[in-house]
Amino acid sequence: MFSKACEYGIKAAIFIAVNSSEHRRVSPKEISEEIDSPQAFTAKILQALVRNDIVQSVRGAHGGFEIEKDKIATTKLSQIVFAIDGDNIYKGCGLGLHTCDENHPCPVHDKFKVVREELREMLENTTLEQLALDIKSGVSFLKI
After folding, report:
1. Which residue, among 12, 17, 14, has the nearest Cα to 28 in the 3D structure?
2. Which of 25, 27, 70, 132 could share a disulfide with 17, CB 3.0–4.6 Å?
């Protein structure tokens, strides 16, 4: 449902949030290893997250990526998805057709509309803090 870049962006943001909550910055190399993404591709994704003010980049010997504590609590998954993929996930056809709308629906249009709305609700109501806490408590995992 998400592009590969968006999947990596979500995982990277969660990993950075977990580490930031422990007052630790992480390097691009650490991030790419944790999310199992090529370093160059990870760098582009991180640039998009920085440009959209989701993560901060700190240069220097003790630099790396971090997220301010208050931003961890308020950043929604929808912001990460928008930063990487835009709003196409809310508009696209379930079958990938170019012309699919209320007036010219594809065979799964009405069913996919429900799924898309539930996805929007989940993305807009899930914060990085919730996901980071699940990782820290062992309820969820980023890597197996």
Report:
1. 12
2. 132
* Reported pTM: 0.91
Compute the distance between CA of residue 143 and CA of residue 96 in angstroms, rounded to an integer.
30
Q: Which domains does the chain have, with CATH numbers?
A: 4-137 (1.10.10.10)
Alpha-carbon Rg for the chain in angstroms:
17
Query: Coil, strand, or helix at residue 104?
Result: coil
For residue 45, give the H/E element and its range: helix 39-51
Contact 14, 31 (CB under 8 A): no
Give residue-wise pLDDT tens across range 92-102: 888 989 889 89
